[in-house]
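Revision sheet: structure tokens.
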Amino acid sequence: MSVCPAGEDVIGEFLDDRKKFLKEVVKPLQDKSEMVYVVPNSDAEDHVKKRFPHKQVRSVSNGLRSKSIRAFLGVLPHMFQRNQAKDLAATYHFTFTGEENAQATVIIKNKTLTVEKGHIGDADFQLIADSQTWIRLLAKETGILSAVMSGKIRTKGQLKLLKAFSRCFPS
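Predicted:
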């Protein structure tokens, strides 16, 4: 989230003389030494460090905790970090079992994300998971190792693709 100094009360000044407004209002805010809160390993963190090196970066959680598989799939486009996916081109098939059954295809390529219901095309990586275990994993209430060892999560494909997937959705 960011704050824009061009609300309705000052939009007139901006429209009247954009150059002056940027110099007198925006530039001092950009130059101000302050803390900026970002999700670690996100595009925002990279941007702040590159564009505003004088600002102090503080790490925070993204605050999003899916309570259902439907919510998880729905929030993926909002959490997607396109620059973290710059070299990734993969199709993922998710199969959720248990309390909440669902199938989904997630395609990441050319720094874009597509989420579709059902399994579409050939998957580079497949994940079959008990829905409640997956939700607990996302909430960091359980670990991936114990979920795999108990058979609640099964995968097919190169594990580096799962790691690449998680990099696109830092929390």
